[in-house]
From TrEMBL:
EC number: 3.1.1.-
Gene3D superfamilies, alphabetized: Cytosolic phospholipase A2 catalytic domain
The name this protein goes by in its record: Patatin
Pfam families for this protein: Patatin
Motif DGA/G location, chain numbering: 213-215
Record's keyword terms, sorted: Hydrolase, Lipid degradation, Lipid metabolism, Plant defense
Lineage: Eukaryota, Viridiplantae, Streptophyta, Embryophyta, Tracheophyta
Keyword check for Hydrolase: yes
Family the UniProt entry places it in: Belongs to the patatin family.
A GO MF label: phospholipase activity
Its biological purpose: Lipolytic acyl hydrolase (LAH).
Broadest EC class assigned to this enzyme: hydrolase
Record text about domains: The nitrogen atoms of the two glycine residues in the GGXR motif define the oxyanion hole, and stabilize the oxyanion that forms during the nucleophilic attack by the catalytic serine during substrate cleavage.
Record's signal peptide: none
Amino acid sequence: MESPNTPLQPPTFGNLITILSIDGGGIRGIIPATILSFLEAELQKVDGEEARLADYFDVVAGTSTGGLVTAMLTAPNKQGRPLFAANEIKDFYLEHCPKIFPQDKFPFSSAKNLLKSLTGPKYDGYYLHQLIKEKLGETRLHQTLTNIVIPTFDIKHLQPTIFTTYEVENRPLKNALLADISISTSAAPTYLPAHHFQTQDSTGNVKEFHLIDGGVAANNPALLAIGEVTKEITKGNTDFFPIKPNDYARFLVLSLGTGDRKVDKAFDARECAGWGMLSWLAHNNCTPIIDAFTQASSDMVDLHLSTVFQALHSEPNYIRIQDDTLTGDACSVDIATEENLSNLVKIGERLLKKPVSRVNLETGCNEDAYETTNEEALIKLARILSKEKTLRDIRSPHGKTRKTS
């Protein structure tokens, strides 16, 4: 069995357009990291231990913590292979989150943190920024091993700024360092400082960026990823087969959430009605205003895509793995205690054993859809991805046929 190290050939040589999308959610990024580790392990069972997720997905999209995971999975190392294997990302979070989000254990720390949030970001971001720069170095957007989509929000112009490999050829000023993109998409208001940087093209033109967390624009970037592909198809990009309206069922999307608060543990409007700025910023170890807009963003995308794939009679091509039963510290984006981080790993592992769910288009809640578990769905997905890559290798004049077991 040969190694699947050959680059993924364009979709025009296959039957599918494969997309991986990872939500934002701070330390809760451990949950999708656990899911991705399982999927990559299944791909390795089929294609060998050198298999990596970037070898199989046409597009990897991520917001905030999901944007950082996207960069880690797709940035090349010195050997031209992904910088991180999926099974290394969970350990990365466990090792570094306590230093990114140091926990104040002194008396009255909650009041101290609230006061700090009113006068500046809760964390200075220094450790996170240095860590990202160390890991990603001078790698730029155009160098990723597969196409990526990472949203940010420009606070100066009050509009989304989407970094995508599809744009860099025609818009070189968007060809930023992956480190700057990752820092920007993770700059959650009240938690971490906004990020400013510049890019320069070959003719000396300079562009400034004033960016904050991509979750302000799209905490669930799955729809953005589909949109970027659709634009390329519309422009006649030869990487894609001509698609008719009913052919959008060829999209195969794996969308990973970072967990939602359990409904009966959320907030009561009668309680919220009396809240002022302080309560919206800090209430029971969470930031309700941040939770509201990030979860609303994620859920609206899920609702839309569920409706579209249902209308196309291709529901199995949209896999959404999300846990909406989080309670207590697990709901937080920054309570990086050893106990909570360990609990998040267990939540990810339990999520694998849960039945595949579908959003109820009437209630907006996730409901068990099949007897199949998420784990079984990912095993099946690994086989589909492997077959698709092999098919493209066979059909492409630039590809290399791989033997399969």
